[in-house]
Every structure is written in C-alpha cells, then in structure tokens.
Amino acid sequence: MAGDDVHDYDVGIRPEWDETFLDTLCAGDLTVFDNWDPEQVMATAGIGAVETQTWVAAAQAMQTVTGAVPTRSLYAPSKEVGLGYGIVQAGPAPAL
User: Fold this and answer.
1) Are 25 and 59 in contact, with CB atoms under 8 Å apart?
2) At what angle do helices 38-45 and 15-25 cross, to 10 degrees?
3) Is the pLDDT of residue 93 over 60?
4) Cβ atoms within 10 A of the Cβ of 84, count?
5) Burial of 36 per CB tally in 10 Å (0-12, 13-18, 19+)
6) Where do the DSSP E strands lie in 17-95?
7) In angstroms, rounded to a whole number, what is the distance separating the alpha carbons of residues 39 and 89?
8) Among 29, 37, 73, 77, which has the highest number of CB atoms less than 10 A from its own CB?
9) pLDDT, tens digit, for every residue of 20-74?
10) Per-residue confidence at 2, pLDDT binned at 50, 70, 90?
11) Exposed (0-12), middle (13-18) or buried (19+): which is 76, by Cβ within 10 Å?
12) Can you give the residue ranges of every domain in the chain?
C-alpha cells in the first residue's frame, strides 16, 4: 500500500455529520443531545464520534460557568490521518 493515494480509501470520516454536530453544539441548546442514541451516533458518524460526549460536556460546563455559547473556529477533514478535527471556543458571555 505504500505509495497508494490515501484519497482513494474510505477511512470513515463523515464531514457532513461532523459539520452538523458542530453547528448543533454552537447553536446553544445542548438539550438536543439528550435524545441522541450513542449507538446510532456511532453507526452514522463512525468511531470518531465517541468523543462527542466530551465536547457536549465541555460546552455545558462552559455555559454553566460563563453563560457563553461555543463558537466554531475551525473544522477540517483529513484523510491523511483518518480523522476530522475541529476547534470551538468560548463565545461572548452575556452581560451581567
């Protein structure tokens, strides 16, 4: 396989699903995730989706402490390393 073009292989990246997840995460209503079935998420999004629970927990902690909603900074799928990666950051906190 050395020298083969990695772009010809399905490495399980689901950019459309990742984009939807990030949009939902940054929309501010994290209760949407309460109804997500982990098995269905894994079947649809692939093994990388296992980390989404951590993203939701971090976003909820941020909202609870600061009132801020996450904003998306970056998302990029990378077949070369077999994953998509993203960055969200704390959005502006509401005025007190």
Assistant:
1) yes
2) 140
3) yes
4) 22
5) middle
6) 70-78, 83-90
7) 27
8) 77
9) 999 999 998 999 999 999 889 988 888 778 889 999 999 999 999 988 999 999 9
10) low
11) exposed
12) 6-90
Cα→Cα distances 71→7, 35, 44, Å: 30, 22, 24
Q: Which residues pair with 67 in a beta bridge?
A: none
**What pLDDT sits at residue 13?**
84
Amino acid identity, residue 55? Answer: W
Instruction: Provide the token pair at 85.
Output: 């990666």
Which string of b and e fits 6-28 if b means at least 16 CB within 10 Å? Answer: eeeeeeebbeebbeebbebbbee
Burial (CB count <10 Å: 0-12, 13-18, 19+), residue 30 = middle
Structure tokens given for 51 = 């980390």
Contact at 8 Å (CB) between 13 and 83?
yes
